[in-house]
Amino acid sequence: MSNKFQRSSPQMLGVEASTVSSTASNQPRKRVKRCCRNFVTFMCTQVGVGALIVFYAICGALAFMNIERKYVDETAKVVLSLRYNCSQRLWNITEELNLIDKKLWVNETNAVLQAYQVQIAAIIKNGYVGRSPAQIWSFPAALMFCLSVITMIGYGNMVPRTPWGKGFTVIYATFGIPLYILYFLNMGRVLARSFKFLYRSMHECTQERNYDARLEALESGSLGALTLRKKIIVPSTACLWVIIFYVLTGTIMFANWEKWSFLNSFYFCMTSLCKIGFGDFVPGASLTTAADVDAATQKLREDISADPNEVSDLQRITDQQFKLAINFIYMLLGMGLLAMCRNLMREEVSVKLKEMKEDAKLCVEDTRHRFVGCCGDPRDFYDNDYY
After folding, report:
1. pLDDT-based confidence at 125, cuts 50/70/90?
2. Cα torsion 301, 306, 311, 312: sign
3. What residue ranges do the domains of the chain occupy?
4. Tens of pLDDT along 297-313?
5. pTM (2 decimals)?
6. Which of 10, 129, 251, 328 could bond to 266 as cystine, CB 3.0-4.6 Å?
7. Which CATH architecture has domain 45-73+132-374?
């Protein structure tokens, strides 16, 4: 018996050792799974979704800058050649006619200028704005482009030119739009709860409380006093006042920072929050980037008549990049406020419809009772016949 026990002991020890080793090897795997589960849970929260959409927009802006700045734009050379040809033809016309026939000179020069305008208009229609790809795809502009893509506003003031940029835009929108919808729903739910709590608290503090009615309700054992707070809903006028105040704040902010008029600033806020996005006004276009400073420096070197104070003025305002972050937050928070108003108005509409349904039932019941009271119950005549 002792020998058998001694022979089986190493096998038992081997099984225990393998079990311990497998358990030890599974512990890091369980930790990784737990960390991944916690990370996914956090990213599904409101803070996680907000941080994720900001990170997604920043990564997209950097990617678009890296892709689109490699685009070689030959349109500037075409414009220069057209300008030179136009001026040369005007000089030839002037030299040939020599102001002998003014009417003929005017007609010839008008024809040349009209042809030049048509050519320049066609080039501008194709996307030429007189700036290099490095100046167009600055970080502020790229960030606003990413925001317009994922929020489905689509300003259209700048578009990718390279095939890689167009393909990346499709992939970026495919994953960014569902992420924005998730942010829209979560942020609207959170803001709706917060605003509802704030409105109910202010309503209870300002309303005239009828203590006699509360005492009677408590003495009778009814829960009317306790359910009074649940019946308070946020009216649509409060939501509209919040949106109006937010739009006016953005109007003042963009008018001061972007040097727009108050009408244009208000027009931009309304079209952006309504997701119309014409693209004629886009924040960040007035911000000066390092590429603009380099272009002004190069112009100063090549052109003697250039203003030497232009470079210093541009360098003085290159620290305005923080304004773009506030513009970015303003747009995201505005979308969240729209989602909040949507949820609150939907709740009010559902409550109003329920009240209208109950009022309609009461009206029909009251009408039936009045009709029966005036005309009598028809069943009484049958009862008298039988009995």
Report:
1. confident
2. positive
3. 45-73+132-374
4. 666 666 655 565 655 55
5. 0.70
6. 251
7. Orthogonal Bundle (1.10)
